Amino acid sequence: MPKTTTSFFLACVFFCLYGCPVQAQDPIFSQFYANKMYLNPALTAYDDGTTVNLQYRDQWRQVRKGYSKFTTSAVGATTDVPCLHSGFGLMYVNNTEGEGFLEWNSVSMSYAYRALRDGVYFADDWDLSFGLKASYNWRQLNWANLVFADQLDPIYGVTTASSLSPPTSVVTGEGNFDVDGGVVATGKKWRVGVAASHLLRQKTSFYGTPQRLPVRWTAHASYIKKITYKPGAGMPETTLIVAPIMRMDVQDASASPNAASFMSWNVGCAVSTLGLFGGLWAQSRYLFPDRTNMSTAVAQIGYEIKAPDADYRFSISRDFTLNSVATAPSGAWEAAFIINFKTAYPCAPKTVSARLEHRQCPAL
Fold first, then answer.
1. Cα–Cα nearest to 244, from 36, 53, 47, 33
2. Quick check: is 174 in a domain?
3. For residue 105, what are the domain limits?
4. Rounded to 5, what percent of the chain is helix, strand, coil?
5. Most buried residue, 91, 119, 181, 236, by most Cβ within 10 Å?
6. What pLDDT band is residue 176 in, cutting at 50, 70 and 90?
7. Residue 364: inside a domain, yes or no?
8. C-alpha to C-alpha distances, 253 to 156, 196, 256, nearest whole angstrom
9. Would 322 be classed as within a structural domain?
């Protein structure tokens, strides 16, 4: 894409944002179960022991001809404390949009309490978790890098200065504290959860009238089905895990029934066997997608190495854009790396948790 075309594209995007009040959506990972604490605070320290995860998302590379300026990365660590029925986590997330134009950073601390864990109140096949996450978020916009339509010449490209008055500071920014909450119920074969982000409804604005950040609601669910098979003669039986998965996000719901400024469904299936795992799911604005409303198909593949003291998981995924802009942004790539130190316990668990079945599928 020529430089003038790219500049014009970015300028049009900014003028759309500048000309009307908008409330931006949060960055969302395609491999949402690879970063459980980001998905739902109640999933903090869902795996036993101490877990470290890294995740990187790279999208819209074709806009810049082979290298992306639209990236999201996250690094986090969680520790399960079973004798306290608790999990603790720490996470950092960075999201960059454009050539350093808009950058969002977040540092979070998360806590989860497992109220019905290990049959304390009900049966051993139940596990109910509540979670809270406190974050400090910082956004900044580099005004000096912006190019506006009145600066563009069809022959010479960027020429004169823009007539739009810049803010007092070339690099404008704002920070605020935020709180997320969630709840997750886990059975032997199923798991359902609901999370709410931006509970403090902080005001946010770089230029113009401040707008309240809308609450983002997330619902997710998965189901475990084990299938036993023999790979070949003389070989031991092997278990294939098939797990249908679902995720729904709604942000800034309007007063109209069944309407929202942002709504997204992810529906698909994950599989795992012999250390290999992966999945395929579709993203759509509706629960039952068709060719007119399905925007993205996501394919994931990964491998898990089990060592005596730790499990190592690496996975990559590809977002295939299916709507009318498919040839321009070229989808997204995402990679995740997770280390679970199984023996790093502040205190030893007393009984087997209902989460054991889900932990046997690396994709979940």
1. 33
2. yes
3. 3-359
4. 15, 50, 35
5. 91
6. confident
7. no
8. 44, 13, 8
9. yes
31 burial level (CB within 10 Å; 0-12, 13-18, 19+) = buried
Looking at the domain assignment, is residue 184 inside a domain?
yes
Residue 227 belongs to domain with CATH number: 2.40.160
Per-residue tokens: 32: 């949402």
Q: What are phi and psi of 33, to 5 degrees?
A: -80, -10
19 pLDDT tier (thresholds 50, 70, 90): very low
Average pLDDT rounded to a whole number, residues 118-122 = 47
CA–CA gap between residue 334 and residue 349 (Å, rounded): 34
Is the sign of the CA dihedral 193, 130, 214, 166 positive or negative? Answer: negative
CA–CA separation, 341 vs 314, rounded Å?
15
In degrees, rounded to 5, the angle at the alpha carbon of residue 78 between the alpha carbons of residues 178 and 279 is 95
Spatial CA neighbour of 91 closest among 59, 54, 58, 57: 54
Tokens of 286: 């509706």
Q: How many domains, in total, are found in the chain?
A: 1
Tell me the β-bridge partners of 300: 279, 317
Q: Are 135 and 115 in contact (CB under 8 A)?
A: no
Q: Please say whether the beta carbons of 63 and 347 come within 8 A.
A: no
Q: How far apart are CA 294 and CA 32, in angstroms?
A: 18
The secondary element (H helix, E strand) that includes residue 194 is: strand 190-197
- The model scores a pTM over 0.90: no
Task: Give me the pLDDT at residue 291, please.
Answer: 58
50 forms beta bridges with 79, 341
The answer to whether the beta carbons of residues 341 and 310 sit under 8 Å apart is yes
